Amino acid sequence: MKRNFKYFSSAIALTLLAIAPVAVPIVTSDTGAISVQAADSQTQQRLDADDKSNMDSDPNVPGSSEYMISKFMDQFDNRYVASTKSLTTVLQDIANNTDHAFGGTTGAGYPYFSKTKPQHIYDMQNDVGVSALKDSNIVEKNGTGRTYFKDSSNQKQYYNNDVFAYMSIEYQKNGKWTPATLDSENDIEKFIYQLDGENKNNIDVSGLQSGSISFPLRVTMHVVASDGSENAPDLKNVDAKYLTKSFTINPSTMDITEDKNPNSIHVGDKLSTITKNDKLAVTDNYSNDSDIVNNYLDKMETPHYGGIFTTQKDAISYAKSNNFDPTNLSKGNINSNELKINSDGTDATIEKPGTYYQVVSYKLSDGYSNTGDKVKDENGNDTNSYQLNGDQAIGYMFSKNGHDPLTDTQILLYDTTINGSPATEGTDYVFNKNAETLTTVRKIVVTGSDTPSDPITPVSINVDSSDKNKKLDVSKDVLKNVNDEIAAAPTQSDYYDSNPLSNADAKKVTDALDNPGSYYRELKYTLNDGYSVYNYDFGQNAKVDYDANTVTYYQKVTVLPDSSSNSSTASNWKTSDVNDVVRTKNDQPKYTLNNDDDQVINNPMIDANTSLKVDKVRVDQYGNKQYHIADGEWINANYVTLESSITDVKNDDGVLYVDKTSSDYRLYDNNGNEINNRALDRNTYWAVDEIANDNKGNTYYRVGTNEWVKQVDGVHYPIPLFLHDIQMNRGILHLDDTNQNYTLFNENGRRINNRALAENTDWKVDKTAKDYEGNTYYRVATNEWVEQRNGVHYPAR
C-alpha cells in the first residue's frame, strides 16, 4: 500500500527549523518550477566514462549536477505545521545547543542557517528535521531518500563532501519579506520569543515584542558551492533557477463557524428548523489534495447535533467524557417530559420555554481510515504505526494509529478558531481523543408564541423641551399581552443617535432634547412577578434579556426646531410653490400639524394613509421640510410620502440581483419618473446604498445616482454577501508590475476608494472567496479583498 506522509507536526518534526529561521514571509522569488531539458548524447557518454570533472549540467541526465540538484529541490513545497509549538520546541532545543538531529554528534550541530558557513548537501539531505519538510509523495516517487547523495554506484558519492547548501527563513513585516537572523543561540531564542512569547532561558528581549512574528514563514533552500576533494563540476554552469527554491510554512488550522447570536424557536418547534450555520474548515497538507481525500474531509467537516443541556458547563463536561456520543439527542440532562424525540431519534421538540445548550460535533474519525497495514521502517520491518487513507495527519492525532512516521510523534490538535477568533480548548470547544470529536455548544432560546403588542409610539417635541414634557410621559404605557398586563411602565434611560436594534454602532447622545434631530430613547420593561420573557415572542423591535427578565424598546423621538423667532435655534424657512399630492404614512394612527409659526397643532390631526393636496413646501436651515395643506396648517415631510416621488429614504448596504424573469429592469429617478434610456440587464448584480418607498407601498433600491430599481418579480434584495463561499486559505499573494495599483473591495463588492495595493508587493492571505460571477478574491486585511486578475499571483512561488 502506498504511503503518503505529507506533514510534520511536533518537536522532532521541526528539527527542520533548526535549519531555517522561522519567519513570516512572502514568497518573491520564482524558483519552484523545474523545467526538463533533453539529454545530449555527449553528456551521457561522459557519464558512462565516469568523467565527473567534466560533466555538463542537464536536468534530464541522471548523475548530472542539474539532475541531482533539481531532485533535491523537488522534495520541498509549501507545508503546514500542526501548531506554532511544533516549531518553537525544536528551535528551543537548537538554542540549547543540543544535537536534536541537527547534523552532528558533538552537541554543536551544523549551522544550516549560515550563509557564510554552508554545510554539505548530504548532511542536509540526511537530517531528520529537514526531511520532515519534504513532500513524501515526491520523495517516494523520485527515490530521494535520506542517503540519496551517498551512493557511489549512481554517481552521487562526490556530493557527500563537495556540494554545499544552507537554508534561510523570512517573515513578513510591513508587507515585505524580512530575513530572520539565526546565527547564534540567542538569535534563535529571540526569534522564538517573537514567534510565540516563550523565553525559557530568560535572555534579554528588550525592544522585542511577543507575537510580532507570525505565519506564514518563507523558507528558501540555497545550493551555493562545489569545491571539495572529489573534483565535482563547477556549479556556475548550472542554471541559477535550480540553485534556490522557496516555500512557505503555515499553521494547520481547524476553523469553526457558528451562529453569533442564540438560536430562537418556539415551544414545540422542531430542532431541525433552526438555521444550521455550523461549519468546520480544516486546512492542512491534505485539505487541497485529491478528490478521494476531499471525500473524507467533507464527511469530517459535517456537523452532528447531539444532547441538550440546561447549562453550557454541563454540555462542555459531557463533551469531554469518555462515554460521549455526538449524535444521541437523549444524552442531555433535560427532563424527558420536556424533550420529545422522534421515533427514529433524528429530531426533537422542546416543550418548555427557557435557554438550552446543545452539543455540535465534528467526527474527526470520518477524516481518515486505517488500512490495517503497518508502516515499514527503512529496513522493511513493521513499525508500531498503521498506514492510513484520507487525511493522515488527522489520523495520527490518535494513539491507536501509532505515531506520525515522519516525526515519530503524535500529531497535536491544530490551532482552532471560532468565527475567525482564537478559541480555547476545554472552554470554547472540546477535543475528545476517545470519541475522536471536535465539539462546540450552541445556545438555543425556546419561547412561547404569544406576541405582546408594542406599547411605544414615535413622538415629536420642540427643541429645549423638558424631559417632563407630557409627550415623553410613559407612566401609563404598560406592556400587555392581549388584555393581560405583563409589565408595569418602563424605566427611561439613554438617547441614541440611531436605533441600537438595527445599528450596533449607535452612540449615546447626552443633549438630545437641546438639538433638533431624530433620536431613539431606551425604554426598559421588567416583567411582573409570575411572568417570564420566555413565554413570549417580542419580535424584532425589542431586545430581550432572558437572565434579567426584561424587554427593551427604542422610541423614536423627533426634536423639532423652536418656533420662537427670538430663539437662537428658531427656524428660518424658505418657501416655494408646488402642486402635488402627499399621503400620510401608516406607522402611527394619527399625525400632528404645525401652524405658520411652527407650533404643533393637536387639533385637527390627520389620520394615517390620508391623501392631501399641497401647494407649498418650506425647508429650514436644519433641513426640516413641511408641506402646506391648508391655511395655517403644515405637515412634516417625514409624516408623508409624495404621490409622484420616491421618499422615506433609508441608508443601506447590500447587493441586489436581477434574475432572468424579465429581459431588463426599468429604472426610476428620485421623483419616481421612469428613465427611458437606461435599464438593468437581466442576470446582473448591483450594489445598493439606499432603500426607499413611495406612498403606494412600492419599494425601491438605489443602484446609481438618481437611479432606482423597483421591487418587482425577479428583483432579489438583499442577497447574501457579494462574496460567498468564503474559505480559510493561508498563503502569500504577489502583485507584479502589470498594474501600478490594484483595487481593493469590501465583502459587499464595494470599491474601497482610499486604499489600494501597490505593484511589486507581497501580502499575507488568510481567506479566499467567490463573487456571484465566479471570480476569485483574496482577503489581505479585515474586509479588504483583491480580485484575481492579470498581475495577481496566488499562491506566490
Automatic annotation (TrEMBL):
Where is the region Disordered? 39-62
> What Pfam family is a match for this entry?
SlpA
Q: InterPro entries, from UniProt?
A: SlpA_C_lactobacillus (IPR024968)
Q: Does the keyword Aminoacyl-tRNA synthetase apply?
A: no
Position of the signal peptide: 1-25
* Keyword field contains tRNA-binding: no
Per UniProt, residues of the S-layer protein C-terminal domain are 667-710, 744-786
| Sorted UniProt keywords | Signal
Question: What is the protein named?
Answer: S-layer protein C-terminal domain-containing protein
Could you tell me which species this protein originates from? Companilactobacillus halodurans
